[in-house]
Design a protein that fits this description.
By secondary structure, the protein is mostly helical. The chain is built from 3 helices and 2 strands, in the order E-H-E-H-H. The longest helix is centred in the middle third of the chain and has 16 residues.
């Protein structure tokens, strides 16, 4: 295997939650991060630009988790 120990695979895509790339990394024992954290941070930044208010990450994450029921 060409995968080194402690590798992390990051994919900007958030749908599907596990892309073929992330599935490969996971199957080889790596840690995976999908695009959900990036989506949340973009939403937080956009809301702050528009309203001047900062929404806590946990609120956005819980909303997405409720909607997707899998995050």
């Amino acid at each position: 295997s060409v995968l080194k120990k402690n590798v992390v695979g990051i994919d900007l895509v958030y749908s599907p939650l596990e892309t073929p790339f992330l599935k490969l990394i996971k199957s080889l024992g790596g840690e995976i991060i999908n695009g959900i954290p990036i989506l949340i941070n973009q939403a937080i930044s956009g809301l702050e630009i528009i309203t001047g208010e900062r929404c806590p990450y946990s609120i956005m994450h819980n909303a997405i988790r409720t909607k997707l029921k899998t995050v």
